[in-house]
Each structure stands twice: as C-alpha cells, then as structure tokens.
Design a protein that fits this description.
With 190 residues, this protein is an alpha+beta fold. It has a 6-stranded mixed beta sheet.
Length: 190
C-alpha cells in the first residue's frame, strides 16, 4: 500500500472515548437491500432494473473527502463494509468501549425506509447487511458543530446515531427504549 499520512491527523479504530457521539455518513442498508432485491424476486414493491439500492450495492461511493476532513475532529473512524453493527463492534473493541445506538436515528434512504415500514426488510438486516462503504466515526460532542460544518463543505450527509459507553458491547434501542436483539452480527469473512 502506498500513500501519505493525512496532515489533519490519522483516524484509527482505537481512539473512541466514553461520552463521544457516534456518527455515520450517508444512508445505511441500501446495499443490503440492493443485494436482497437482486436475489429475491418476491420483493416486487420496487423496480429491480432502476433501483437506487441496487446501484448502491454495485457502485459504492467511498467518503474519502469526509474522511480526510474528519482528521481534525474525529476520535476514531472506519468504513462500514461488514455491516454497521459489526463494524461498530470492531471500532468499540479496538477502543475498549461499548456503544448505545438509537435505531430510529439510523439514516435510511426512501427505498429502505419504505420496505422497513412495510415489514419486508428488518432493521436487523439494515444494520448487519454490509457493503455500505459509508463512514462510522466517533467524536467528542463538543465537536458536533464542526462535524456538521465539515459535512456541509464535503456535501456529505452525516447523522449522529448514538453514544460511546463504558463497558463492552453494542446496544441497539428502538423508539420505546427497548433493546433490539441482533442475532447475526454482520458479514463473516470465514
């Protein structure tokens, strides 16, 4: 691998701190739904040929400019390739922290939101599906305004979805504050 260090600072998985906000770029679950649409013809609610989600699965858009700009403010970061839940678990494991995530804060595209609302695709599939190639990162809450300014400058949607907690493990909460059980963590390279 060839490259040069980011002059604004390197972002590692191991820098998250208790109390940091957890943020994601873009929308989550598009590629997972795109792959499901390619495999499952029973989801006739969407056009297979023109699906936004299929294009997101086939042609990911890595958030390079956002990642470079976050070097000044983020405490930890990585891409979401194996699913939000699993990659957040990797980040938290490297940082020796846990996390609380609000499922209703996870940004969804119109296509994903419509099939989740119709119970044709679950929030678990959204957060474990993988291939989003969005960024998940943590930052002190005092940097939130700076993060949203960077998002505007880089023309990238950024959403705060949770908080870094002490201890270990990831808890995903529904709108009632109940924990959503996650059976499958994400993509396995085994």
């Amino acid at each position: 691998i060839f490259g040069t260090p980011n002059p604004k600072g390197s972002l590692l998985r191991s820098g998250a701190n208790v109390g940091d906000g957890i943020f994601v770029s873009g929308t989550i679950g598009d590629a997972a739904l795109g792959l499901t649409l390619r495999r499952n013809m029973s989801l006739s609610c969407l056009s297979k040929e023109n699906s936004y989600c299929i294009s997101r699965y086939r042609i990911p858009r890595p958030r390079i400019n956002l990642g470079l700009a976050l070097g000044e403010v983020a405490s930890a970061a990585m891409d979401i390739s194996d699913g939000l839940f699993q990659d957040l678990s990797h980040l938290c494991g490297s940082s020796n922290v846990g996390a609380s995530v609000w499922a209703n804060k996870i940004p969804l595209s119109k296509e994903v939101s419509s099939v989740v609302t119709e119970n044709k695709f679950s929030i678990e599939q959204v957060i474990t599906g993988g291939d989003d190639y969005e960024l998940i990162f943590t930052a002190p809450v005092t940097e939130e305004n700076s993060i949203f300014k960077i998002a505007r400058v880089t023309k990238t949607r950024v959403t705060r979805i949770g908080t870094v907690q002490s201890g270990r493990g990831i808890s995903i909460f529904d709108e009632n504050g109940d924990i959503i059980p996650v059976v499958k963590g994400g993509y396995s390279h085994d």
